[in-house]
């Protein structure tokens, strides 16, 4: 497969990672995951806007403009003859230089992007998934889509070892988000989710969920719910680029309502299909 690197389009096998890569040594970089449906990117502009916000937040100068990278990612899909469902993964780091914590001098950023097939998770989108809670021990800048994902990795691993799809992060009982997705609770026909502060990643799908809710006259309240609200929830669901709008039917072994995807969740899934399709 063709890969986009800082030196242009190359075969993936030709991609060599320098020994002193700051992404590897310090996690000093940022990334994006963009959904592809039938070869076409979904919400590409939103993802590129967030990439540039993340870059600015870590004072990383990207070696391209939004317009340039948007064109190049489109070309990447074309060069791979992408017609199926998949993702683009892209990351940018502060380059390669002898290891020292402070920024290296005149070193260009390293960036690459690749395309990968990823079918939609039709079964789980229909039945829903189970989750468990984990303590959110992350830093105060979770709005940056940074390569530092150890707390997320450990939480997801714990969830999978317990047979769950996702881990829900909580800070002193307040729910922030999931290890790699946004989490929502529905109560009395109202959607609750953590406000878009520095404690969560501002999900591109979350933005769409807010818009779908507005179009359907469903109140969308940006207010954190707490773990104790979960047993009384009418519905729960999560969202991300790879998971879309996914029903959550149990948390920590406690069933949500009748353990079936709820009516509002279904409505939002339908709106998503219209929007992405
Ligand atoms: N994860 N919160 C976290 C911590 C995430 O990592 C993600 C995305 C989201 C949802 O963001 P979006 O709706 O823009 O996909 C929320 C990506 C898919 C990943 O790391 O694979």
TrEMBL record:
It is an enzyme of class 2 (transferase). Its cofactor is pyridoxal 5'-phosphate. Signal peptide: none annotated. This is D-alanine aminotransferase. Keywords: Aminotransferase, Pyridoxal phosphate, Transferase. Its EC number is 2.6.1.21. Belongs to the class-IV pyridoxal-phosphate-dependent aminotransferase family. Homodimer. NCBIfam families: D_amino_aminoT. It catalyses: D-alanine + 2-oxoglutarate = D-glutamate + pyruvate. It holds the Pfam family Aminotran_4.
